[in-house]
Design a protein that fits this description.
mainly alpha, MetI-like fold, globular
């Protein structure tokens, strides 16, 4: 009996991974719901009604939002309002629908993270390859010091410095007169304005990850250059640059891809909060920040589930990519 072909193995792995992803998402949604609505000592109805509310008012609020029903029923109702009918409303701003708010904020966060990711991937690979090629030289040490500085600088501080320079001190000079006011410009309305509004936030967010990815890739490349297959490639007459880029780099990108999947999912899910707040971008991170200030439980729950979705999907995408590249992964 012949074994399954490679495509059948990949398909089976993808199906298993997608089912696992759905199971994880359901578990996350239930856990988040229990944390926000079933924690001992935390009464959502009393929080909605206000500090000086009478018991009758609290009871009326509890009935209005279905908080007097058993927890499984509350969970089912909450997920129905959030995912099916999509008419879940805020506890703080009555009548404000949560799903449209997140849908409006998501393009802002996606625009920010996609642009920053393109910058940090390109420059992270460039820094790692150049540092490994010039190992133990002034170039290598200089790049590693610069990367360490980038990792150490807080994003909010760097963003404030950028704003101080471009929005105040030097805004009227020819260098930064093109910088628009803080905020987001939709791509569909003004592509050039969209780029101008996001280029500085992109660079600010990417600085941290360029340092991390460059240092990790350099370490992986140096380790790969000591492997037997690299010595074989050199024995075939390939130049050092060909060995580095064609062989060592390909095998060293595995951890790079893993990191990218985790970081990208976390940032799209709201991890870019500080960058959004500093540059006045009304994305998912800023939306979560306001919800935390107001203790708006449905909004917090929805943004947490939104963030979890992107993290889980990113991890699944990385695993599926591994399965397409490495047959050993399909057997797990």
């Amino acid at each position: 009996m012949q074994g399954r072909g490679p495509w059948a193995e990949v398909t089976g792995f993808v199906v298993r991974r997608l089912l696992h992803m759905l199971f994880v998402l359901v578990g996350i949604s239930a856990t988040v719901f229990l944390i926000f609505f079933a924690t001992p000592g935390a009464d959502p109805a009393a929080r909605i009604a206000g500090r000086n509310a009478t018991p009758d008012t609290v009871a009326a609020v509890r009935r209005e939002f279905g908080l007097d029903k058993p927890l499984p029923v509350q969970y089912a109702m909450m997920m129905d309002h959030l995912l099916v009918t999509r008419d879940l409303t805020s506890f703080v701003n009555r009548g404000e629908r949560i799903v449209p708010e997140i849908a409006e904020a998501a393009p802002v966060t996606l625009s920010l993270v996609l642009g920053a990711a393109a910058i940090w991937v390109v420059f992270g690979v460039l820094v790692g390859v150049v540092a490994a090629a010039f190992k133990d030289t002034v170039i290598d040490r200089g790049l590693m010091v610069a990367g360490l500085v980038g990792v150490s600088v807080p994003v909010f501080w760097l963003g404030e410095v950028v704003n101080l320079i471009t929005q105040s001190r030097l805004h009227d000079t020819f260098l930064f007169s093109w910088v628009p006011a803080l905020g987001y410009v939709p791509l569909s309305q003004n592509p050039l304005g969209w780029f101008a509004a996001l280029v500085l936030p992109w660079i600010t967010l990417a600085v941290l990850y360029i340092g991390i990815y460059g240092r990790v890739l350099r370490a992986n490349l140096i380790e790969a250059l000591n492997e037997d297959y690299i010595r074989t490639a050199r024995a075939k007459g390939l130049s050092d640059w060909q060995v580095l880029t064609r062989h060592a780099l390909r095998c060293s990108l595995i951890s790079f891809v893993t990191m990218f999947g985790l970081d990208f999912g976390a940032l799209v899910g709201g991890g870019a909060l500080l960058t959004e707040v500093v540059f006045g971008l009304q994305g998912v991170g800023a939306l979560t920040y306001r919800a935390l200030e107001d203790l708006d439980l449905p909004m917090i729950m929805a943004t947490v589930i939104y963030a979890s979705f992107f993290v889980v999907v990113s991890n699944a995408a990385v695993d599926i990519l591994y399965a397409a590249i490495d047959p050993r992964v399909r057997e797990r």
